Amino acid sequence: PRPHPTLRVRPLTCTETRRGDQQVVHSLGDGAVHVSAARHDATFGFSAVFDAGASQEAVFEGSGMRQLVELAMDGFSCTVFAFGQTGSGKTYTLMGPLGQSDTQPASPALLGLMQRSFTCLLEQSRSRASDLALSASYLEIYNEQVRDLLSPGPPCALPLRWSKSRGFYVENQLSVEFESLEAIVSLLLQGSQRRRTSAHALNRHSSRSHALLTIHVRSRAVSAIPLLGRAGGLRAQRGGANSPTVASACPSKQGTLCFVDLAGSERVKETGSSGELSVEANSINRSLLALGHCISLLAKPRGKRTHIPYRDSKLTRLLARSLGGSGITLMVACISPSSRCLSETLSTLHYASRARRVTTRP
């Protein structure tokens, strides 16, 4: 099957409205969106388009996210990633409003795809009466370093390895088992608060890293990784290529559900970035360029494809299986409707259109 690109158009911000920006993106219905501005007049098609009035619930139900959760429970490798210009609403779509914490939870209506998927996963697990073990790992890629967001202490760089059986994987990443919604949401918020963010001219809370939260769904009959400790109802474990396993006589399914919040593409001149912020922006743009290059090559017919350069960045290595391998992928393109962001909006729309032509074999 092909990835299912969906599009979300955020509302104009107060700053854009005061500045007199024009709205240049209009939904036509039936998954079509029209861009109209000076010297630009184009229509793009997607699996679904969510305009400024769409609720978080509508995005969850209309994007096919519920089906993705069910496929992960059936043993498939599933990925959802949000991409677009900085400040276009990627983190809001995945997580909901900023500033959430265990003591200050977000309004239920504003929760993003991640929390809604956790709820759906736990409900499905109970309704199927299936004996599943659920665990989570949370990583960020910052300046081409892979860092664990759940490990105690300051995030440290972890090596990225490759093996024939697993493909690319992160060595010694922490995986934490959970059994309740409160536990997994606490892990999400804990990791998100440690993620690198900064303020600049385009976004007061700009993500400076790519973040990957992976939910592992497996039968309890297989104990894939030795337990190291227990704290607060969460069991922490680390995995490597040669971790010992306990074989099971009965067949088991092992699926994954990975959420990827990509850092936003941006023009350094417009953000007013300098010094470390400028270095971060250049690193982000290089990895997104590598991702776009891989998608362009994967969109070609299989007989005309050349080598796919997954090794060009840590991001493309970790997404290799999701993009063109054995996974099922949902892509959420996030854009601003502002005339001032026209160039970045068109770039995102073309990016998502190319991704539509990629095929995988789950």
UniProtKB/TrEMBL annotation:
UniProt entry keywords in alphabetical sequence: ATP-binding, Cytoplasm, Cytoskeleton, Microtubule, Motor protein, Nucleotide-binding
SMART domains (UniProt xref): KISc
UniProt domain Kinesin motor: residue ranges: 2-358
Gene Ontology CC, one term: microtubule
Cell compartment(s), UniProt: Cytoplasm, Cytoskeleton
GO molecular-function term, one example from the UniProt record: ATP binding
Residues annotated to bind ATP: 84-91
Cited PANTHER family: CHROMOSOME-ASSOCIATED KINESIN KIF4A-RELATED (PTHR47969), KINESIN-LIKE PROTEIN (PTHR47969:SF33)
Similarity field: Belongs to the TRAFAC class myosin-kinesin ATPase superfamily. Kinesin family.
UniProt protein name: Kinesin-like protein
Species this protein is from: Calcarius ornatus (Chestnut-collared longspur)
Name of the coding gene: Kif12
